[in-house]
Amino acid sequence: MIKRFVYSQKVAPYVFVLPFILIFLIFWFYPLVNSFVMSFQDRMLGQDPKWVGEANYSKLLTDKVFLTAIKNSVVYMLGTLVLLIPFPMLFAVMINSKLMVGREFFKSSFFLPALTSVAVAGTIFRLTFGEMEGSLMNSFLGLFGVEPIKFLKNGEWSMAALLILACWRWTGVNMLYYLSGLKSIDNEYYEAASIDGASAWQKFRTITMPLLKPTTVYVTTISIYAGLAMFTESLMMFNGNNSPKNIGLTIVGFLYRQGIEKNKLGYAAAVGIILLVIAMVINLTQLKFSGMFKKEED
Amino acid sequence: MKKRSTLISIVTVLIMSLVITACGNPSDSKKETQQLGTNAGENATELSFWTFVDLHGKHLDKMLGLWNQQNPEKQIKLNVTVMPYDDMHNKLLLAVTSGKGAPDIADIELGQFPKFMEGDNVPLESLNDVFAPYKDVVVPSRVQIYSKDDQVYGFDYHVGATLAFYNTEILEQAGVDYKTIKTWEDYKQAGIKVYEKTGKYLGTADTSATWQQSLLLAQQNSDFTDENGNPKVNSPEMIKALEMLVDLQKNNVIHTIPGGQPDTEEAKGEYNKGNYASALMPEWYMSRFVNEMKDLKGKYAIAPLPVFKEGDPRSVGLGGTGTVVTKNGKNVQLAKEFVAFAKLSKEATTEIWNTLGFDPINMDVWKDESVTKNPDNEYVQYFKTNAFDTLNEIKDEIKAIKSVKASPTISNIFNTVTLNAIFEDGQDVKEALDEAQAAIEQELK
C-alpha cells in the first residue's frame, strides 16, 4: 500500500515538493500573514494589542526618518546594481579566458571576502574610514596633501564607504555566478564567430552578453533584494544603528529600531510590509522588462 | 601544474576562512557566562545576572563573598553573563516582556530604563521593602529616576555628579590656572588662551551624547521635558545653552571630537594625545582615565563645573545603571535582598568606590576619609586633586535630569540629527531645535 503510494506517479511530485511547501507555509506565509495583521495594531510585547487601523501606515508616510531610510536603501541598492553586475561579469570573462595566468588564485582571492564575517569586515572598514588623521584612508590621502575627511559623518562619503564594502564583499560571489553562466555557453559559437572574423569585443557583445542574460537577471534579482535588505554592514560601519543624521540608516535598520529597540512591534510590522511591497514591485517590474514572464519559444 | 595551483588555492582559502572564523562574530564571542560565589555551600541558591559592564560583575563577586559569609543560611551562587550594551538591553526587554528567558537580576542603563516602565504591567519587581532600611542614607534623586508610582525598581551604582577634569600640563603652558575658572565666560577666555598658545582645544563639542545639554539645562533649573514628561527641547534655556556652546566652538574653545563625545574609543585616543585640555563629564569618567588613559596620570585635576553666573547649581547627576530584579525569578525575595545589600550597604558602596571609582549613592561613604583619601586607592593616586574634595563642596548642588518615556526618543534625535546639524553643519540653533521638537513629537505620536 505504502509502496504503491510512494511509487505512484501522481503522488510522487507532491511528496518531493512537500518539504518546500511546508517551509514556505511555516516560515514565510504564516509570519507574513501575522505581520500583516500586526501592522494594523499598536502592539508591544508584554502589553495587550490594540487595533489601530491604518494609523501605522499613515504615520509611516509622514515619518521623515523612514523616508530617509528608504532613500538610503534605494541609493545603496542602485549603487550595488551599477557596481556589482558589470564588473563581476567582466572579471568572470577575464578569468575564464585561456590567456589568464593564475586563474585559480584570482578566483579564490575574489571569493575570500564572502567568507569573512560581516561583523569583522564592517569593523575593519569603520577603522579604515575613521575621521582621525591616522586612520588608513586619511593617512593615504595625507600623502597627497589632502586634509582629513570625516567619511562617516558625511552622506556621500559614507554611502561610498558602504558601497566599497559591498564591492569588496560581493564581487567574488557574483563573479562565480557569471563563471558558471560562461561554462554553459557552447564554445562552437565563439569558433564560428572567429571563422567569420569577429573581434573579441564583437564576440563579447553579441555572444557572451546575450547568453549570460539569465544569469544577469538572477544576479539583478538577488542584488535588488540584498540591497534593500542591507542592515548588518551599516550597523557595523557606524558602530550601532544610530548614524549621524541617519546617513547609514536602512529600511531594515529602521524596522529594527522600532521593533526591537523601541518594542513598537505593530509599527515595525508595517515597515516590513512596505519593504516587501517595494522589493516585489521593483523585482516584478525588472523581471517583466527583462522578458522573464514570456513563455520560452520553441 | 594546474592541480597543484588549485590545491594551493583551496588550502589558502581554508586557512584564511579558519583564521577569520576564529575571529568570529564579536557579539557572540563577547557573551560569556561565569559562575561567581566560590565560597557558597552546596545548598546555595543559583541566581543569574546580566550586565553590559564587566567591572559590575567583579563588584558583585566581591559582594557575593561577603553576603555568603554573613548569611550562611541564604547563600547564593551567581551566574554572570556579560553582553554588549545594545545586545543586552534588547534581549532583556524581549525576555522580561515576553516572560521567558530573563535572568533573576539585571543591569539596566538609565537611558534605557523608561522602555521597561511602559504600560501598566511593569515586568520588574518593586524593591520598596528592601530599600526601606537605606532610605535615609542614599541620594533621593538617584532612586527617584528608577521609580514609577512610588515604587522603586532599581538601585544605581553611582551619583554621576558632573565635574570638570582639567589637564594642568596644557593649561600651565597657556598660563591658565584652572582654579580661576568659575563661569562659562572664564572658561571661554581660558580656552581662547589655550588655543592661541598651544593650538589645542580646551573642550569638546559633543555630537553623539547629551551630557553637555543636560548639565547646561540643569544649571538653569530646566530639563528636556516639562513637569508632565512632554518634550520641550526648543525652550529658551536650551537655546541659551546651545548658543553658548556654538559661541565657544566659533572661538576655538571647544571642537568636535572623533567618536562624537569624550566617552568613546576614538575620543580617548585624542585625550591621550593631549589634543583636548578638559573633559566636563560625570564622576564615573574617572574610571576611564585610570583604565584607558594611563599616560595622563598625574596631569589631571578635578574642579567644579563653570556656571552661567555664580550661585547657579554647579553639577548634575548623569548616566547611571539600575540593578533590577525581574519577575521571572525563582527566588525573587532573596534576589531583592542581595541586590539591596550589594548596591546600598556601607560595605557595598565602599567597594563601589574602591573597585569602580564611582561616587556611590550612599552618602556615608562621602564623609569617610579613610575610604575617600586612602593613599593606596588608584583613583586617589591618579589625579592631582581628590575627587571627594570637589564632590563634598558641590554635594548640595547636584541637580537631576528626568528620565521619562520621551527620553530615549529625545536622546536618539539629538545624538543622530540635531547636534550633528549644529556642530558639524553649522545649522542655526533655533531652527535645529524647532526641527528636533517637531521630530520628537512626531515620533512619540
TrEMBL record, chain A:
PROSITE patterns: ABC_TM1 (PS50928)
Pfam families named among the record's database cross-references: BPD_transp_1 (PF00528)
Membrane topology note: Multi-pass membrane protein
Annotated localization: Cell membrane
Keyword annotations of the record: Cell membrane, Membrane, Transmembrane, Transmembrane helix, Transport
Primary location: membrane
CDD domains: TM_PBP2
Full protein name: Sugar ABC transporter permease
TrEMBL record, chain B:
UniProt KW keywords: Cell membrane, Lipoprotein, Membrane, Palmitate, Signal
Designated name of the protein: Sugar ABC transporter substrate-binding protein
Lineage, opening ranks: Bacteria, Bacillati, Bacillota, Bacilli, Bacillales
Domain of life: Bacteria
Pfam families in UniProt: SBP_bac_1 (PF01547)
InterPro entries hit by this protein: Bact_solute-bd_prot1, SBP
Natural source organism: Paenibacillus polygoni
Signal peptide: 1-24
PROSITE patterns: PROKAR_LIPOPROTEIN
SUPFAM superfamilies: Periplasmic binding protein-like II
